[in-house]
Amino acid sequence: MSAAALIERDFAVPDIRCAGCIAKLEQGLVRDRRIAAARVNFTEKRVHLSYTPDTGMPELIGAFSNLGFEAHPIGTGPDEAGIEAETSRELLRAVAVSGFAMMNIMLLSVSVWSGATGATRDLFHWLSAAIALPTVAYAGRPFFRSAWRALRHGGTNMDVPISIGVALVCAISLYETATSGPHAYFDGAAMLLFFLLCGRWLDSVMRDRARGGVAALLRNMGTGAMVIDDGDRSRWVDATALEPGMVMLVAAGERLAADGVIVGGESQLDLSLLTGESVPQNAGPDDRVHAGTLNLDAPVRVRVTAAGADTAIADIARLMGEAAQGKSRYVRIADRAARFYAPAVHCLALTAFAAWMIAGAGWHHSLLIAAAVLIITCPCALGLAVPAAQIVAAGELMRAGVLIKDGSALERLAEVDRALVDKTGTLTLGRPEALGLERFDDGVKSLILALAQASRHPLSEALMRGLRTSDVRPVEVTSIRETPGFGIEALWGDRIVTLGRPQGRGLGDALATELSVDGRAVATIGFADRLRPDASEAIAALGREGIDAMILSGDRAEAVAPVARELGLTAQTGMSPHDKLAAIERQAAQGHKVLMIGDGLNDGPALAAGYASMAPGSASDVGKNAADCIFLGDRMMPVVQTIRMARRTQAIVRQNFIAAIGYNIIAVPLAFLGFVTPLVAAIAMSGSSLIVVGNALRLKGTIR
Amino acid sequence: MNGLIFLIPIALGLGLLGLAAFFWSLRKGQFDDLDGAALRIFVEEEEGREA
Predict the structure, then answer these.
(1) Active site residue A422
(2) Considering the entire predicted model, what is its pTM?
(3) A63, A251, A429, A430 from A485: Cα distances, Å
């Protein structure tokens, strides 16, 4: 085993919660000889592995599950996310450089302000210039680039006054320095860049963090499949390498990685992520099956007909593309402010220059005044006002289990006034739950538990979840055998016990399992999808926030009606993805700002079209990609908390804007009249930035 | 005035040192896992236990 041939890959492990998990993973994984090194990243809930090339993906996942963790491989090598993370790093480097420059120039400036004169002052000014000019050239690039882009397209943005201001201030200060003048604004230029870069960096960090969280959640699509060769040998193939014609073996409890046709075996498939239908469907040979569906019952062989990018039904992909265009038209609040701000600042500076020229002050003095106006109005506080509030809010929400994709999502969430909610998997948990377990006595329960824990079948897992709450211990059973498509059989003392598909009686399509002892049925347990525990509470709370909710479901009317009745909502049923899209457009045409909450592939276009959208963590990959924000866990209350938080954030942002405008109303006349020396500019700038950041920090602890 | 000849380069040098240290730690991934670093203190080294 040569060290050079090791493969490196990251795995998302969402269950890393404590120091114990770190120790368990890092020390447990390397016990497998093929894994050379494992390093846990706790913040991003990832594990970085180095392993020998002959290790297959199932063995690696198996190594994780032996330790009791669920792991999902993350992408291969550098991709788009890597480039985005690089921008964050570049911004952070710029922040560091401008911070260093700001502090050192300030050191020199303070000496000048406290009375250095003559040769000393000139020396200090020259030194400041030597620090400031390279800094501006390096750290100012993000602003110059974006301003140039805007100007070339005939528009203007926040970066145009910033770029002009910084460039002009540097030029004038350099002239002042060369002519031994009393005022140089190098510290102002460096400080301005520092504060603004902080804002940019915060914004970028927020997007990175959310993207990391989402990447860790993207896992519902099978990440690969066991493919059977002609010689009946099986090997693991990554989802990206699957090709039409291959035959994959899909075990019970596995999700399909590609579209295909069943060529062997019979099973029940859970289509809820695809269509919203809650009742599982029987599938046999020659039936078409789709990627993303969950095989519930027995292993089947599926011949792949479409794989990779073609799988997510083409129609849904096309609809999503169209729907998403509406959202990109949203203009962020900071840019909306800049639309008025930038021309106003330019006019002010120009007027100041012209007025002082007319008053006969000479072009040198007039330019100095214009520069002071630009420096003082430069949107230092404005640049921080929005990102500071949004990153605090996103951090708080993340702690409550809600991932916000970006700042614009928070702004849009604050404005919604109508909620359209999918049923299966959104209002309900989207997984089978055992019904009426409490009516059995402890003996039966412990027998069920003993059999259920021997299997990884979805129904067994539902039974284990249900029994975990009541305090029962499994009985001793021996020679356990699982028969695919039927159930589990074992010896309990000298009696044969089975847990499996109910025999004989017509239970229709409903999911059920039966416990029998020596061939005699003892207990029959039904399964059904249940409402989220706090669904009605959350819907009521939404109503109190002034948001009316309505159900849009792809399921049949009989399945939706009880849910709608219990929650007191109106519902539309049997809707195709196209119908859901149309329903949203109808609401939007009436002037409503629609919040779409959904999880399935069939909700994808609606999630992309909604003014804002949310998806539960259990949603399909398509749903999670399309939604603005994702809430984790079984509870639905985070939806309401998110909206409250978004509204509070918006209120804070508004306060920050008002503070910034108020500051300008006081400072601009002073600058206009020529009272703003570099010292005053420095105090005003840092003071207003501190106020804005302090105000944003009040959002901390809002969710309790 | 003469003091300045030493003091200013020293001040700038210290600042640059800090900046270089920050870049170094950034490149070495010191900031990649901020929450994990706090928890690692509780992790017992396996070799240590066996010895």
Answers:
(1) yes
(2) 0.77
(3) 27, 11, 25, 22
A96 to chain B, any CB pair closer than 8 A? The answer is yes
B36 in a structural domain: yes
Which helix H or strand E contains A148, and what residues bound it? helix A141-152
Distance CA A403, CA A395 (A): 9
Best residue of A22, A30, A46, A117 to probe chain B, by most B CBs closer than 10 Å: A22
Residue B49 has what pLDDT? 43
- pLDDT tens for A633-645 read 888 899 999 999 9
User: How is residue A148 written in tokens?
Assistant: 């140039």
CB proximity list for A242: less than 8 A, separation 6 or greater: A224, A225, A227, A248, A257, A258, A304, A307, A308
Q: Residue A120 and residue B1: Cβ atoms within 8 Å? A: yes
Cα(A698)–Cα(A393) distance, integer angstroms: 10
Per the domain annotation, does B8 fall within a domain?
no
Q: Given A422, A599, A603, A621, which residue is catalytic?
A: A422
**Amino acid sitting at position A228:** I
The answer to whether B33 contacts A96, with C-beta atoms less than 8 Å apart, is: no
User: Does A689 have pLDDT greater than 50?
Assistant: yes
Query: How many angstroms from the chain centroid is the CA of residue A492?
Result: 48
The tens digit of pLDDT for each residue in A421-478 reads 988 888 888 777 887 777 788 888 888 888 887 777 777 878 888 887 777 778 888 8
Does B4 sit within 8 Å of A103, measured CB to CB? Answer: no
- Chain A: residue whose CA lies nearest to B18: A100
Domains of chain A: 1-77 (3.30.70.100), 82-214+330-381+648-697 (no CATH), 221-254+258-306 (2.70.150.10), 390-429+533-647 (3.40.50.1000), 431-530 (3.40.1110.10)
A103 interfacial to chain B (CB closer than 8 Å): yes
Tell me the pLDDT tens digit for each residue of A232-262: 777 777 777 778 888 888 877 777 877 888 8
From B15's Cα to the closest Cα of chain A, the distance in A is 7
Phi then psi dihedrals of residue A102, to 5 deg: -60, -45
**Does residue A637 contact residue A624 with C-beta atoms inside 8 Å?**
no
Distance from C-alpha of A292 to C-alpha of A239, rounded to nearest angstrom: 12
**pLDDT, position A287:** 85
Q: Could you give the number of structural domains in chain B?
A: 1
